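Intended use. Records like the one below are meant for learning the mapping from a protein sequence to its folded structure. Do not use them to infer anything beyond what is encoded.
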Amino acid sequence: MPARPPAKGTQDTTTLEALVARALAAHPSVRAADERVRAARARVIPAGTWPDPMLMAGIQNLPVTDPGFADEMTMKMVGVSQTIPYPGRTRLRRGVADAEAAGAEARARTVRLALAQRVRDVFYELAYLDQALEILARNQELLADFIRITESRYGVGTGTQQDVLKARVEAAMLAEQAAALVEQRRAAQARLNELLDRYSEVPVPPVRMPERVARLAVPASPGAVRFVSPALGARAAGSPLPPLLTLEELAVANSPELAEQEAMLQAAAARVDLARLEVRPDVDVSLQYGQRDGMPDMVSATVAVPLPLNRRRRQDLGVAEAQAEFAAAEAARHEARNRVRLEVARLYSEIERDRTQLALYVGSVIPQARASLESATAGYQVGRVDLLALLDAQATLFNYETEYHRLLSDFAQRLAEMERVIGREVIP
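Structure written out for the chain above:
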């Protein structure tokens, strides 16, 4: 295992693409996948090479009762033999190895895409948690103002002790939520550091959602929010995604998972052809030179071929096995293609759902909740609204703002997952 860099209290950068690049350069899963590709590529040339020739040396026809070289049949022998594969066999073996190497390369690409998605997922989770902590801090300041107002009103006899206690209870609940968010952030920080091959304790400074991602999700201005129709449940207009059919075709063309399945299918097809060649024998050719004392030397040459006497129990069953494996690989490719299309359709629907919910939050929910809090605050200051209504308005706005950033993080994570499934950027 490579040595991890020591924790120095800071990280190199918090830009998303720099973090992805560092993870791809440092994570051991990528190195392992690359080494498997090297191993697979190293098997290609040997697979298409003839077997090594055999060198022979020995003594032939040595008498048992009177050992020696006086007998005219006894000779010292040296020779060489070579197995010559049936034409096409080495080509097919190399084809199998080539296809397996292509599959290993596709698996390595899958590993890279999955790792990049994991980095983006954690980054977007951290962006949500940092925004939630910011919103909570603002609400804590607002609640502190409420507490001062209730204590002041209680001091002059226009408020009740119950209001003071209720406001303090709400402040304590915010502290409990803050503690939970901080611990979630620590866990997310540890996940990011693992992906970067660093110690879990290396601090990660606050991060923000990339502006480009946020604008892909929803317009910044409530006035720019539009829907495709006035019908209830209509999607938000202006989707940045290409049509679903286009995305599915891109996935079929670019998915490394499907590329791996295609490579495995090609390897299985080559194995079928190899199995059919098993009844076509390789040829063993040998040449020997024999030296005899006091007699002429001798040269021998032989050709040997195997006899497929057990063809029905060996070669024919080998062909059946290879054909079954090919059919299984073909079915697996079909299943993978359907699964990729389903994943694209699911993510497409979930991304559009997130966009629509975000548009509703920006266009109406959050502005109305903010106006409701401002009205309740003004009413409480002049005594027209009780504290419970004010706290309820404040909690409602806090929940909506937090949920907005949760949805924005979900949108970004699903977009990253879509890019992993398709195997390329969805939105240039």
